[in-house]
Amino acid sequence: MTLDSKIPAGPLDRKWTTFKNNAKLIAPNNKRKFDIIIVGSGLAGASAAATLGEQGFNIKCFCYQDSPRRAHSIAAQGGINAAKNYQNDGDSVYRLFYDTIKGGDFRSREANVYRLAEVSAAIIDQCVAQGVPFAREYGGLLANRSFGGAQVSRTFYARGQTGQQLLLGAYQALQAQIARGSVKMFPRTEMLDLVIVDGHAKGIVVRDMVTGEISTHAGDAVLLCTGGYGNAFYLSTNAKGCNVTATYRAYKRGALFANPCYTQIHPTCIPVSGNYQSKLTLMSESLRNDGRVWVPKRREDCGKPPHEIPEEDRDYYLERKYPSYGNLAPRDISSRSAKEACDDGRGVGPGGRGVYLDFADAIKRLGLSTIQERYGNLFEMYENITGENAYERPMRIYPAVHYTMGGLWVDYHLSSNIPGLHVLGEANFSDHGANRLGASALMQGLADGYFVIPYTIGEYLSTQFGKKVDPHHPAFEATKKDVLERTRKLLSVQGTRSVDSFHRELGLLLWDKCGMARDKAGLTEALEKIPQLREEFWKNVRVPGSGDSFNQSLEMAGRVADFLEFGELMCLDALTREESCGGHFRTEYQTPDGEALRNDELFAHVAAWKYEGEGKPPTLIKEPLVYETVKLATRSYK
Amino acid sequence: MNFHLKVWRQNGTSGTGKLVDYEARNIPSEASFLEMLDIVNEDLVSKGEEPIAFDHDCREGICGMCSLTINGVPHGKDRGVGTTCQLYMRKFKDGETITIEPFRAGAFPLQKDLAVNRGALDRIIQAGGFISERSGSAPDANALPIPKPIADTAMDAAACIGCGACVAACPNSSAMLFVSAKAAHLNLLPQGKPEKDRRVLGMVRQMDAEGFGNCSNYYECEAVCPAHIPASFIAMLNRDYTAASIRETTSATA
User: CB of B1 within 8 Å of any CB in chain A?
Assistant: First the structure.
C-alpha cells in the first residue's frame, strides 16, 4: 500500500489556489441530494456543519455532550494565530508557515501547513463578521499578543476565553443552520462504529446516551471531527468525555492512524495535588508573555517560601538556556526543561513536581491593573483551585498532556485512505508535525471546517452521483450487531474493578513510559504491560446498570476499552521512531546539551499504521515527507 | 473530610425521584465537588450499586455542562465564583450535610438523577442568537473598527457559558439572563445591528414557547451566574424588545 497525499503540483504558494481553480464543484441543485454525517461539534465539526449546511448539503451532526456548544474547543484560552501582520512587525503567510513547520520539528507536510497559514487571515475576518468579540485597542482595531515559538505578535484573543468565543461563533452559525433545516443535530449521541459499504465510508453506528438505543445512520460521506486522544493518559487537560473511540473504531475498519506517538505536553498547567484528581487544569500559555519561569538554583531552597529566595539564587532556566526566545520557547522545549529541573531535585510544591511562574516583575513594569486585565480570569481560576493568590506569590506550574498531534491519516483533501471518510481538526494528523505551537489548534480546526473541507469534499462527492447507499444494506445491520455484542460483553463481565481504576492504571503507565521522555526499555515494558491490563479489564471490569438506559459507566467503559488498545499503538509508534523530534523525546537520541536529535535520513516520514486484525501487529506504512521549499534544519530557539 | 450527602435519585425521564442518603468518607480537602462525587461513585460501584448520574465535562468551569444545585443554590454555596466543577471541598465544613439536586425548571426535563435536558436553550439560540454570515465572504476584520468599550461590554455578555444556573435559581424559572446576554453580545456590535429586531423578538418568543417564566427582578440569576453576567443586560433586552415590538406593528423592524 502506498499513500498518495494528493498534493497539487506547482510552487508552494500557488498550490491551494491551483487546487481551488481546478476543484470539482457540486452544483447548488445537486448539493441537496447529498447527506453528510459529521461527528463532533467542536471548532472543526461545528464550522464544517455550519458551512456545508449553508451551502445546501443535508447534514447530520452528532455530539456526546448535551449541546454542541460544550465541545472541548471551548476550553482553549490563549488565542488564535493569523498572518494578518496588523502589528506591522514583519509577519507574513510564509513566516507563519515556517514557524509552524519549524515548531513541528520538520515532521509535518509542507503543503498542508502552507495552506493553513494562507487561510489563517480569512478565519479572523470570518469570526469578526460573526460577532466574535476579540480584544481591541482604543482605536477600535484588533489587538494582538505574542505566543510561544514566534517572534511576531500574531495571536488574536478574547480575554482568556478565545476558544469559547470562537466555538460560540461556530455554534451560533450551526444553530442558524439547524433552524433553517439544513442541519439535524443529535446531542448526547455517541458514535460507536463506522459503517463501510463496498470499501467506502457510508454511515455510522451511534448510541443514544439517554435511551441507550443503538441505531445506524447512512450518508454519502462521513466527517470525523472528534478531537484528540490525550485522555489515554487519564490525567490531561482534556474534558472528561474526550476519547479516541470514533477515530480508533475507524482505524479498526481500515483507516490508517498516523503518528500516534506525537503527544503534546503543555508546559503551564496546575500541578497534580493528589491521586483522587480527575483532570489537570491548564493555565494559558499566554501567561508566559509576562511571567518568568524559575526554580531555585539549590535543592535545599526548594522548601523555602519563594519570596525568601533572593534573585541571585533563582534559576530562570528558560531565559538562561534559550536567550532569544526565553520564556516563550516552544511547548515541548519548555515542558522538558521543567521536567529536567524537577528531575534534578529542584522542583517546588508538593511532591517536588512544579516550577514557579512569577509575575512580580511584570506587575512592577506594567502595573497590577494591566496584569489583571490581561490574565484576571486565569489568576482567579488558579486561586480557586490552589487557594493561592498569584498576584502575591508565584504560580506553581507543571507540564500536562494537552493535545495530540497524531491522528487519522489524511491527504491534502482531508480524506482518509477510506474513500468517503474525512477527518478534520485535532482528529487528523496533518498540520502540526511532532509539536504544535500555541494558538494553532484553533486555527487548524476552523481552517479545516470553514475553508478547506467546503472546497475539498467535492473531490469525493463528485464521484458519488447516483451511488446513494441503501440504508438497509447488510453492512449497517452487521456493524450494529458488532456494537451490540461489544456492549453486551462490557456489561456481562461483572468483575470487581471499576472502569476508572483501569483508566488510571493505563494513564500512569503511559505517562511514565510514553510521556515527556521515552526510551526503548520503558516502551518495551509498556508494550508488555498494556495487553495484560487489557486482559484483566475484560475479565474483571465491573460495569453497573444496563445498556438500554442512561449509563455513564457504560459510556466510560467503551472509551477505556479503546484506550487500552490504542495505548499499545501509541507505544509501538514511539518505540519504532528511533529519533527525538518535537514532543517525542527518546532519551537515547539527544544532543550533548540535551536537545532533541532528529534523524532525517531514516525518519523524515509520516508513520501510518494499518490495523491487521485482532492479536496481529499492525503494519507500518510510511509517507515520506518531501520538502520542496523548506530546508530541514536543526530547530534552535537559543 | 467526611460529609453526609442527600442526593436526588431518579430513574429516567418519567417516574418519581427522591433524596437518598450517602456517606462521603475520607475526602481530601483539595478535591473538587465533582471529584468528591467521583469518590462516592467508585464506592457505590465497588458495592455493586449504580453510581449517581451527573453531567460534567471540561471540569475547568467553561463548558457549562455541570449543573448541580447544592444546598438549594445552583453551582453551590460559593455564589458567583464559578461552576459546580470549580467548587472545592475545602469550602465545606467537615461533617456537613450536603443536599444535591439537579437544576430544576419546567423547561429542563430531567434525564436521570442529576442530569437534565437543556435543549431549550439551544432552541432559543436557533430563534435568532446568531449573525447571518456566509463563510468566506467576510470583509477584512479591521475594516470595521469597534470602540473598545463596546467590544468589552459585548465580551462581558458573550462570556455566558449557557449552563442554565440563572434559570434554576429564578423563582419563575426565567431564562432572561441567558437570553439577554446573547442578545446584548450581538446587538451591541455593529455586525449584529441588521438583525437586531428579528433577534430579540425571535429569542424572547421562543423563550416563552419553551415554558420559561417571566422576569420579575429577583436578581437571583445574577447572584449565581458563574460567568458574572450582570442583570443590567435584562434591562437592555426589555428596552430592545419594546422598541422592536413597536417597530413590528409599524412594519419597520430591522
Answer: no
